[in-house]
């Protein structure tokens, strides 16, 4: 009996505690107190003033009910603790994400600061004159620049090159008067110093330092059509310096009768720095600048800006004035604005280096912004010959050909026959371009090297698709050059070389 009372007192204490906390409810009623009457029955008093007689304490299932309620309450508490733990985990994850974002933001801020530092130093680099335009370009190549910085870069390129771009005028004798015939532009690419003894000093800068210069002698490139005429005789050529407004007597050293390029020599005491040649590969999308004299000397030294539309285009040209295209040449296509008077002027990159000589544009109501320049690679092969007054000698392979593309496009029309006169009904597997040889001239340079029914797949490493490509590459060959052909013959590929003597 003693232990029963102790247990009863403990239970009463628990229920009183839960009732005060509002945690124990019976039929949604809050318990105020629990007691035993004289008969040993348990009496429960509720907050609303009502009560319940739970009967004999010893035989009542009340204790079990209390234990069940306590277990349910523990379960609820555990669930709440689990939810709180999940929330804390999510908060930790959010804090980690925010921290990572802050780290990335600081890294971006550091990069921007570094880029801005490079850009802010651009003007100082230009003013110091201690580095070249190319070095400036390299310094900002990977930087994010604003329009002012980019504009400064363009200005540096133009202002560096513009003094080397002069005017060129040719004259004819009309009614016993010297009359201008052609007006264009020209690019100074070479300078030597001449001393008082008439000796040539190749290093003109060294001659300036030594004070041994009497005058300077320059080589200038321009277009052939500026200094020659098909139906007139050019009697004089002058180079025009628009900065001083004076003309220099000039001499045409040589010109190519196929590619529209000529070399002119003139002398003066004024120093012009020759233009630098580009050594990088020209690619579609490269920025380009044209400098010249569009529509004559009233617009001397005009600069226009654009991009390289395509690094390699082939155009046919009438070189002998019979209104029949007889020559195919390679050009750089660009969208830089050029006009009559730009002929012979420079096409440069953002480093201020020459990439080509402007020569023509397509004109039509349906065409706009299609200009063409002779690529520097072509010019460099011709200059040594033209400087000596040598007209480049062009060679023929002496072969009769079909283009593989034409055979395929015709769906093997019977008009395409092999060397035996049989229709070509199929091609070797994998051959979808090139040149099919049907005949080789007995006295040709190709005799004994190329054979009928050979298929030329590539010419000097370039895949051949169209006949004009083949003719244009062949047209660049001059005396002493060697041409390498990849040829399909007898079920195998071989390499053959022809040297033009």
Describe this structure as you would to a colleague:
By secondary structure, the chain is of the alpha+beta class. It folds into four domains: 2-58, no CATH class; 61-120; 163-387, Thrombin, subunit H (Beta Barrel); 399-499, Pdz3 Domain. It contains ten helices and 24 strands. Mean pLDDT is 85; it is low at 1-7 and 16-24.
Which structural class do you get from the secondary structure elements?
A: alpha+beta
Please give the domain count.
4
User: How many helices does DSSP assign?
Assistant: 10
- Low-confidence stretches are 1-7, 16-24
CATH C-level class of the largest domain: Mainly Beta
Beta-strand fraction estimate: 25-35%
Largest sheet: 6 strands, antiparallel, barrel
User: Order of strands across the biggest sheet?
Assistant: 5-6-8-11-10-9
* Overall helicity: 25-40%
Report the C-alpha radius of gyration, rounded. 46 Å
What is the CATH topology descriptor of the largest domain?
Thrombin, subunit H
> What is the distance, rounded to the nearest whole angstrom, between the alpha carbons of the first and last residues?
134 Å
The geometry reads as elongated
CATH architecture of the largest domain: Beta Barrel
Report the average pLDDT across residues.
85
Give the number of DSSP strands. Answer: 24
């Amino acid at each position: 009996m003693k232990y029963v009372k102790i247990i009863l007192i403990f239970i009463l204490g628990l229920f009183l505690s839960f009732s005060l906390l509002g945690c124990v409810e019976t039929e949604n009623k809050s318990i105020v107190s629990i007691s035993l009457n004289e008969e040993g029955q348990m009496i429960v008093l509720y907050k609303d003033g009502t009560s319940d007689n739970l009967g004999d304490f010893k035989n009542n299932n009340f204790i079990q009910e209390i234990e069940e309620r306590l277990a349910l309450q523990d379960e609820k508490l555990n669930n709440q603790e689990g939810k709180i733990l999940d929330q804390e985990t999510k908060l930790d994850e959010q804090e980690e994400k925010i921290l990572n974002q802050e780290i990335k933001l600081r890294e971006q801020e550091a990069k921007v600061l570094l880029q801005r530092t490079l850009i802010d130093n651009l003007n100082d680099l230009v003013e110091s004159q201690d580095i070249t335009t190319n070095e400036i370009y390299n310094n900002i190549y990977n930087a994010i620049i604003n329009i002012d910085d980019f504009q400064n870069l363009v200005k540096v390129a133009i202002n560096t090159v513009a003094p080397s771009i002069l005017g060129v005028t040719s004259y004819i004798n009309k009614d016993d008067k010297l009359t201008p015939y052609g007006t264009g532009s020209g690019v100074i690419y070479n300078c030597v110093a001449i001393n008082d003894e008439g000796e040539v000093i190749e290093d003109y800068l060294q001659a300036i330092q030594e004070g041994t210069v009497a005058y300077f002698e320059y080589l200038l490139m321009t277009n052939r059509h500026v200094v020659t005429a098909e139906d007139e005789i050019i009697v004089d050529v002058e180079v025009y310096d628009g900065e001083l407004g004076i003309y220099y007597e000039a001499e045409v050293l040589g010109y190519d009768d196929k590619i529209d390029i000529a070399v002119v020599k003139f002398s003066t005491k004024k120093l012009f720095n020759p233009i630098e040649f580009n050594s990088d590969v020209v690619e579609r999308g490269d920025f380009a600048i044209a400098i010249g004299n569009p529509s004559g000397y009233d617009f001397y030294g005009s600069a226009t800006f654009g991009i390289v539309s395509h690094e390699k285009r082939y155009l046919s040209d009438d070189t002998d004035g019979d209104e029949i295209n007889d020559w195919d040449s390679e050009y750089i296509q660009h969208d830089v604005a050029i006009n009559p008077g730009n002929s012979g002027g420079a096409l440069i990159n953002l480093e201020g280096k020459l990439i080509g000589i402007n020569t023509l544009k397509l004109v039509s109501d349906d065409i706009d912004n299609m200009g063409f320049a002779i690529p520097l690679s072509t010019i460099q092969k011709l200059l040594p010959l033209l400087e000596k007054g040598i007209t480049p000698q062009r060679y023929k392979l002496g072969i009769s050909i079909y283009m593989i593309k034409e055979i395929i496009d015709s769906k093997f029309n019977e008009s395409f026959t092999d060397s035996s006169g049989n229709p070509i009904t199929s091609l070797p597997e994998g051959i979808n371009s090139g040149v099919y040889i049907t005949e080789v001239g007995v006295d040709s340079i190709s005799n004994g090297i190329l054979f009928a029914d050979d298929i030329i797949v590539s010419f000097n490493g370039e895949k051949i698709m169209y006949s004009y490509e083949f003719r244009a590459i062949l047209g660049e060959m001059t005396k002493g050059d060697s041409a390498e052909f990849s040829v399909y013959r007898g079920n195998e590929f071989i390499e053959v070389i022809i040297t033009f003597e």
